[in-house]
Amino acid sequence: MTSTISSWNPDKKHSDVERWICIYPAYLNNKKTLAQGRRLPKDVCVENPTHQEIRDVLFGTGLRIGVENKLYPRERSKEMLYRGRIRVELKNDDGSPIKAEFPNRESVMKYIAESIPKLKTRQNRPADQQPQVVQQGGNKAKGKKGRR
Fold first, then answer.
1. Tens-digit pLDDT string for the chain (148 aa)
2. How many CB atoms lie within 10 A of CB 117?
3. Among 88, 79, 11, 7, CA closest to 54
4. Predicted TM-score (pTM) above 0.85
5. Burial environment of residue 131 by CB neighbours within 10 A (0 to 12, 13 to 18, 19 or more)
6. How far apart are CA 28 and CA 19, in angstroms?
7. By three-state DSSP, how is residue 22 classified?
8. Which of 85, 91, 103, 122 lies 20 to 30 Å (CA to CA) from residue 128?
């Protein structure tokens, strides 16, 4: 993506990067709730997807994609693991879908969720090496009882 992204304008064409759909890893994460940004049913989603995995899956589809170093606004952790936004061009300038199998963003997200578990990087991992989400703040120390 060589062009800079400016504010949205209804006069822009579908081929402009600003009109491409955005996909954050949180949309496909079965560890998230709907309030935390998950967009698909839990049984369809995958565990802790990364933007690299989403990019790898979409690279084989023939759709034009772009990777941006953005953080999902509802994401509480600022770690690099959770960073990344994928932009995908779905429509031609006349509004027709580029690929008939991907007419809308939901079809793209379902395809990604089905394909990530098939990636070699996912198949070679033993169960104990799956990415874990670190829970913070659950073990707070109690206050002092004062001097005795």
1. 455 566 666 777 777 777 788 999 999 999 999 998 889 999 999 999 999 999 999 988 888 899 989 888 888 888 877 789 999 988 888 888 888 898 888 999 999 999 999 888 888 765 555 555 545 555 555 666 767 6
2. 12
3. 88
4. no
5. exposed
6. 21
7. strand
8. 85
